Structures are given as structure tokens and as C-alpha cells.
């Protein structure tokens, strides 16, 4: 995998442990993470990032840090992963952003890059994604990205979406 993937406005790269405090500023923020898992401590966030990076070495992919290309400011974390903390769902797409970055289309840009990586480099046949029913922005984004609603997963209180590989 290349060191950094560039989109029109973003830089996507493997996180460094030195970036964990910046990642924790939103991954540990209950408002930012109201629809998903919120890290309770810097230590928990560091562990999450480290485990995903181990998976990157094993699988060839894991969530990236998301930076604004022009300023290099870290605004998010996301991409493809096979969740080591809740296994069995296959390869998923997820995205987490600092609230200051919401509403600017960055999640769309990240999703495009991740799905292109999935289709062209990894040649994955299927990618899944989850969104709580009350997160209308994520549900709409997943549909826009070509994901199809599969079912509501009661134990997770999330909608499950899947997307087949695009030629």
C-alpha cells in the first residue's frame, strides 16, 4: 500500500502512535461518537489504533488518518477494516470525523478513495457498512456510495449495508 493516498482535498495515511492524542480528541468525544463506540481513555484509543495497525500488516489495509491536504490538519480516521473487536462481519467501511469537519463532504471523499482501493487494489467482492437508523447522514452517504440496505441488526441497533465490487 502506498504511504499516502491523495484525493482532491485529503491525505490518507496509516496512523502513527504519536497521532493518538489528536485522534482521541474526536474518537473519545461523546458528541462526535454519539452513533458509535467512544474511546473512554487515551490508553483505549492507543490500543484501538495499535490493533488496527497490526491488522494492516496482516491484511494489507486498515483505517487511515484523514488530513486536509492544504493545511495538514488531522480531521478524521476511517477506511476499510476487518473489525478485530467485533469479528465475523467481513470487511467493513467506516469513517469517524472531528465535528469541526462535519458537513464538508470529507466522508464522501474518504469513502470514494476507500472503495476505489477496495475495487482496484484489493479486488474485494463485497464490503459492508453499518449505520444507526437515526444517523440520516450516514445512511444517505452509504446509499450514495452504492451500498444496499440488507437488514437491521438488532443486537447492534444498526442498519447493515453491503456493496458489491464495481468493475
UniProtKB/TrEMBL annotation:
Gene3D superfamilies: 3.40.630.30. Residues 18-166 form the N-acetyltransferase domain. GO terms for molecular function: acyltransferase activity, transferring groups other than amino-acyl groups. SUPFAM superfamilies: Acyl-CoA N-acyltransferases (Nat). PROSITE patterns: GNAT. This is GNAT family N-acetyltransferase.
Amino acid at each position: 500500500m502506498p504511504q499516502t493516498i491523495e484525493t482532491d482535498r485529503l491525505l490518507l495515511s496509516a496512523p502513527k502512535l504519536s497521532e493518538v492524542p489528536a485522534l482521541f480528541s474526536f474518537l473519545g468525544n461523546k458528541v462526535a461518537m454519539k452513533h458509535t463506540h467512544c474511546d473512554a481513555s487515551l490508553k483505549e484509543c492507543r490500543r484501538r489504533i495499535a490493533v488496527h495497525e497490526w491488522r494492516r500488516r496482516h491484511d494489507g489495509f486498515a483505517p487511515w488518518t484523514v488530513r486536509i491536504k492544504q493545511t495538514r490538519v488531522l480531521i478524521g480516521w476511517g477506511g476499510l477494516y476487518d473489525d478485530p473487536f467485533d469479528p465475523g462481519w467481513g470487511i467493513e467501511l467506516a469513517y469517524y470525523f472531528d465535528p469541526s469537519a462535519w458537513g464538508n463532504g470529507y466522508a464522501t471523499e474518504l469513502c470514494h478513495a476507500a472503495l476505489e482501493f477496495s475495487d482496484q487494489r484489493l479486488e474485494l467482492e463485497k464490503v459492508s457498512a453499518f449505520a444507526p437508523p437515526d444517523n440520516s447522514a450516514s445512511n444517505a452517504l452509504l446509499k450514495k456510495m452504492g451500498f444496499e440496505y440488507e437488514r437491521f441488526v438488532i443486537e447492534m441497533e444498526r442498519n447493515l449495508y453491503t456493496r458489491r465490487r464495481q468493475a
